[in-house]
Design goal:
Length: 69
C-alpha cells in the first residue's frame, strides 16, 4: 500500500506478530519493536536514487507511531 505523508509517498507493509522475529528501533518513538509484535515496514516510494536505495532505507515502525506521524 502506498501512503502520502508530508508530501512524500511511502510504501507501507504490515508485518504480523508471527512474522516478526527480529528486534528493531521504531523511528517514531525510539523504543524497541520487539519480536512477536505486529508492526509496519515503511520505505520511500518516490526516492530519487531508485528502488534499491529506497528498500535499503526501509524502517520498522510501531503501527500506532506510523499512524500519528
Amino acid at each position: 500500500m502506498v501512503e502520502t505523508r508530508h508530501g512524500r509517498s511511502f510504501t507501507v507493509q504490515s508485518i504480523g506478530a508471527s512474522s516478526s522475529v527480529k528486534e528493531y528501533v521504531c523511528p517514531g518513538c525510539s523504543l524497541i519493536v520487539a519480536p512477536g509484535t505486529a508492526h509496519v515496514v515503511v520505505w520511500r516510494a518516490d526516492g530519487l536514487f531508485g528502488d534499491a536505495d529506497d528498500l535499503a532505507s526501509r524502517r520498522h515502525w510501531h503501527t500506532h507511531c506510523w499512524r500519528i506521524s
